[in-house]
Amino acid sequence: MGDWKTITVPVLSSDSKNIFHYTSEKKISPPSMNSQVLRLPLPSSKSMHSFFSAFCTEENIEQSISYLNRELTTLGFPSIYAESKGQELNLISIINCMNELLVLQHKNLRAQEEVEMQHLKLGSDMDHLQNCYAKLKEQLELSKREIVGLQERDRQLQSKNRNLHQLLKNEKDEVQKLQNIISSRATQYNHDMKRKEREYNKLKERLHQLVMNKKDKKIAMEVLNYVGRADGKRGAWRTDKTEARNEEEMYKVLLSDYEQRQKQLLVENAELKKVLQQMKKEIILLLPPQKQKPKERSEDGPVLSDLEEDIGELNKENMWELSCETVREQLTNSIRKQWRMLKNHVEKLDNQVSRVHSGALNEKDVISREDHELETEKLELEIQQCKEMIKTQQQLLQQQLMSPCDDDTTLLLQDCYLLEERERLQEEWRLFREQKKNFEKERRSFTEAAIRLGLERKAFEEDRGAWLKQQFLSMSTDYKHSENVTTPSAFLGSCDQDNQLVKSTSQRKPPCMLSGPVSGEPCQTSQYITRNSSSAASKKPAGDSKPNQWVESDKEETE
Amino acid sequence: MGFYVFIFLSTKINKYFLVSFFLFLRQLRITVWSLCTKSVSYIKYPKACQQGIAFTKDGRYMAVAERRDCKDFVSIFVCSDWQLLRHFDTETQDLFGIEWAPNGCVLAAWDTCLEYKILLYSLDGRLLSTYRAYEWSLGIKSIAWSPSSQFLAIGSYDEKVRILNHVTWKKITEFEHPATVASSKTIVYKEVEKSPSVETERLSFPPTRALASSLFSTQSKYDVSQVPVSLQHIKPVADRANPKMGIGMLAFSPDNCFLATKNDNIPNAVWIWDIQKLKLFVVLEQLCAVQSFQWDPRQPRLAVCTGSSKVYLWSPAGCVSVQVPMEGDFQIVSLAWHCSGDSVALLSKDNFCVCYLEREEVK
């Protein structure tokens, strides 16, 4: 074994190969060498020999093998030594390990390639993203600038708006001021005008006076030939009476005018009311009651009834021609309500129509129409088929009825039917007779059994009596009088009971028989009877002694 | 010095009185002479304004505007005996005119154009209502009652006509008279000249009167213009008094269906409004400025004159321009219908002629 000398070798030096080349001994520590081996690329063919010889030489074969073995085992490969022996090398395992290592190497290379590809891709993505980022930043800048510009404009417009508002206010104030000025001037002018007018009047008066004074005689007109009134009367003086008359006439004129106007207004009013009522009626007629949903119907129901009531009321009231506020309001309110409803309805119809006419039809509507058509087709087919079926059936029926044309066949047919019925009846009769026989047998057996039972009972009673007598006699020395009275009654009672039982059974049989062909057995049961009946009634199912089961068995018989 | 104005009242009630109106030195004096009794009465201080005296349609009452001591008054006289019925003052600055409603129960009194104010008085002197449309601008220029007394049309200097209704005395609508007629429902008749068609064969010497007139006068006819039509609009000088602007003429047709107006800003046009629909119905655009128009008292037929020698007739059936067959110039400045509606008197400065209308439609 060679000595392992540890030499500190610089890691990843480019001269590592040379170092390997020039060291003849194994002077390199395994870990550092290991790392170096992993990092170095595959050596070129030239230095391969030297590279490989550097690790393993003739001296340290064993060590290098053991080292390799250690490494491989740590890496998870199987040992290259043969199983049992320590020194012998397992060639197969070595080759396997080599192969594994090659495969591993390939995998690693592929992985490396992939990683490099990904690296490239990521790099390009990164570039792309950076470009996008740069562009977006630019856009952001642009939009920021735009915003700033728009804000500036907005500010300017707002300030302009404010200015305009201010101007408007100023103008309004000016207008107001001017109006005030005008009004003050107007009052001033009016005042001056009045003053001047007064002056002028005075001057005119003066002038008139002067002019008039100049003339010698007044320029006046004289009426020469007075005209007399046609009726010879003199003219009326201006008296209070005439004044009163004038007033009266004036008021008459006014009143007649007012009355005329009022009449006109009343006529107009009445006409308008009539028109409104007509409209109301027509609106109510127009409102379709059937197309509305139940909820609406319920709403309209009371409304309509209200309306009808209103109409009734108003008609009544119009007969008296009341024109009070409430009636008028009622009428107008009801008409407004009705008009609103009509308007809503018309709007709904319009919407429906527009929906139908517009191109954007609902999918649902289209499909439903198609479905509808399909269904109608199907229904028509069905109808046709049914009709055909009916026809054929009718034909067959006709044939059935018409085909037996000669009498013999009909008679035969009739006879056939009758025969069928007769045979059925005969069957039934047979069954009935059988059952009757059976029941007779049973009855006889029952009566015999009952008689036997009676006899047996008698015997038993006699025995019992005898036994009791003996007992009594044996005990009579002790008890002489007290038991004598009680026991015979017990016997008697039991004897009576038995007798009654027998009687009852014999009595009960006939009614049971009459009730039907089925129930031949007695209705009441006791232990004795059931036992006997179970033996006698052969038809009964085995082991069935309960009375409830009879009904079921009867049923079986009838079927 | 002055001139006499005599008005003889020839109604049945008043055949015994003679009323004289004497205007002297801008002072009006009304004197009532009784022809039966020897009594004379004076009506003092009547106002010499444009429409200072108004008679009711049936002639029973006369309203006189008076001004005393710078205040306006109205006196109502019973025409049968000329007794004073009512005397009341009006709240006007300077009462400009009064007019009775055709039913004789309401008297409209309006103020000077400096103040837009119209007052409505009942026959017994009560103030029924006052209406003011606006302040400060020039106000009422002319008014017209509808024949049924239902409407009162007030034409003002702002080129609008406001219609008041007789129940509430409130404005129900106003009619504007813009220079551009834009409504498509309006018919605009434009008078156009048509060149005289003279057939050379018929020329003879000396020329007949008819021929002469036809040669030297231009015929005209009406054409229907397509809306929008822009009318000739004048803007009067702002610093002159009594400017030629505003609604100077108003007249209701006798059947209450139409109102004819004239906007002095658009002097060549006559506007005819449909009162039933309260909308502009027809505009007549003439070649010259309209001088006057008047409705036929019996039917809705309007006669218009423009100072030319043609009289223009409009009815809902259409309109026609009729040449007055006079030799020389005959400039019609005003016209007046006969109360039967069969004839119309056409007046020029010096002459007048009567135009007879046939019963059938004038073609």
UniProtKB/TrEMBL annotation, chain A:
Superkingdom of the organism of origin: Eukaryota
Entry keyword set: Cell adhesion, Cell junction, Coiled coil, Cytoplasm, Cytoskeleton
Entry's localization field: Cell junction, Adherens junction; Cytoplasm, Cytoskeleton, Microtubule organizing center, Centrosome, Centriolar satellite
Positions of region (Disordered): 502-559
GO cellular component, one term: ciliary basal body
Any one GO biological process: cell adhesion
Coiled-coil boundaries: 126-213, 255-282, 369-396
Keyword Nucleus assigned: no
Primary localization: other
Compositionally biased residues, Polar residues: 522-537
Presence of the UniProt keyword Coiled coil in the record: yes
Pfam families xref list: ADIP (PF11559)
InterPro entries per UniProt: Adhesion_Centrosome_assoc (IPR052300), Afadin/alpha-actinin-bd (IPR021622)
UniProt record similarity statement: Belongs to the ADIP family.
Name listed for the protein in its UniProt record: SSX family member 2 interacting protein
Originating species: Bubo bubo (Eurasian eagle-owl)
Automatic annotation (TrEMBL), chain B:
Entry-linked InterPro entries: Centrosome-WD_assoc (IPR052778), WD40/YVTN_repeat-like_dom_sf (IPR015943), WD40_rpt (IPR001680)
Pfam families: WD40 (PF00400)
Designated name of the protein: WD repeat containing, antisense to TP73
GO (cellular component) term, any one: microtubule organizing center
Domain of life of the native organism: Eukaryota
